[in-house]
Amino acid sequence: MMNKRIHITLALAALLILPGLALASTPTGGQTGNTKDGVSPTDIIGSAKLTVRNVASDPARLYLFDPETEKTHVVVLSEKTKLTARSKKDFDGRRKLEFGDLASGQTLKVTYRLDDGRITSIQVLERAS
After folding, report:
1. What's the DSSP call for residue 96?
2. Which of 8, 31, 61, 121 is most buried by its number of CB atoms within 10 A?
3. What does the alpha-carbon distance between residue 76 and residue 26 come to, in Å, rounded to a whole number?
4. Residue 105 pLDDT greater than 60, yes or no
């Protein structure tokens, strides 16, 4: 009986203490990547909701406005950057997008690595009106 109480107490303590340790070791808003996207599982990822101001094609460059900081960022995309649509209906049934599908006025979720700022994926949240 005593042994059973000790196991229950230890289990409850682990449930209360371990999540606090995990939260303390992960930066706010961070999550781990996956190797399928070319991102190591140990990389910490952040994301931001930005609006496309302008699209330039050579090289593939976006001018993105951040409403939180009120700054415009110039981003050069690599071929490894994954472009997707949140909704297939916005792009004629396609979820996987190409650079030519990006346009001024679109709202994007940009996911990037915190250590070097490399963009890993872009998702179109709202199509330009």
Report:
1. B
2. 121
3. 28
4. yes
Q: Where are the alpha helices (DSSP H) in 1-129?
A: 2-25
Please indicate, yes or no, whether the overall pTM of this predicted structure exceeds 0.90. no
Average of per-residue pLDDT values in the chain: 74
DSSP state of 14: H
31-126 folds as OB fold (Dihydrolipoamide Acetyltransferase, E2P) (2.40.50)
Strands annotated E in the chain:
31-32, 44-56, 61-66, 71-76, 82-85, 107-113, 119-126
Write down how long the chain is: 129
The three-state secondary structure class of 108 is strand
Which residue shows structure tokens 């230890």?
Answer: 10
- Cα distance between residue 10 and residue 16, in whole Å: 10
Name the phi and psi angles at 24, rounded to 5: -70, -25
